[in-house]
Amino acid sequence: MSEVVGYARVSTAGQSLDVQLDKLSRAGCKRIFSEKRSGRQADGRQELQACLEFLREGDTLVITRLDRMARSVLDLAKIGELLSRKKVELKVIDQAIDTRTSEGRLMFGLLGAFAQFENDIRAERQNDGIVKAKERGVAFGRKKALTDEQCGRIRVLREQEGFSVAQLAKRFGVGPATIYRALQASA
């Protein structure tokens, strides 16, 4: 049997949930999850996570406004994807979005497309920044544990003086795997 489930959120303890709770009750919600927390990230909101876990195929999730559930288009798209997989409908009272209708599905689909576009643009900007930084000589990744000179010295100590890998690791303050890589690199 499908249920109409509500979710309400305010950002701070000083704010009241009363208006949202009243709207959700009038929308027919029998079960309402509510919390007083910042909405920055969905996975940090325990009641939202409990609500999303509770929902079953055929249920309808009702919220008063999209920003009560998600704080970014990307966050909204992730939640929308989860609802879609679970075959749960979404109704947003104040913004007249209802995924049970073709117009509501269109609006929600457009929001998902904007989220993907936003994500793609961010990735392109990040990639451009990395390319420019590399052109300026910025090194990415972890700093090398040993200099080229130290790698050469390790090879000499190993081949000419018979040091063991364990002795070399202790002497240079690194692990045995680093010594093996240094020996390979200086070969």
Automatic annotation (TrEMBL):
User: Start and end of every HTH cro/C1-type domain?
Assistant: 154-181
Name the residues annotated as catalytic in the UniProt entry.
S11 (o-(5'-phospho-dna)-serine intermediate)
Q: Which domain of life is it from?
A: Bacteria
| Domain named Resolvase/invertase-type recombinase catalytic: residues | 3-137
Q: Which residues form the signal peptide?
A: none
Any idea which UniProt keywords this protein has?
Answer: DNA integration, DNA recombination, DNA-binding
Family per UniProt? Belongs to the site-specific recombinase resolvase family.
- What is the protein name stated in its UniProt record? Recombinase family protein
Query: Which species is the source of this protein?
Result: Luteibacter sahnii
Please name the taxonomic classification of the source: Bacteria, Pseudomonadati, Pseudomonadota, Gammaproteobacteria, Lysobacterales
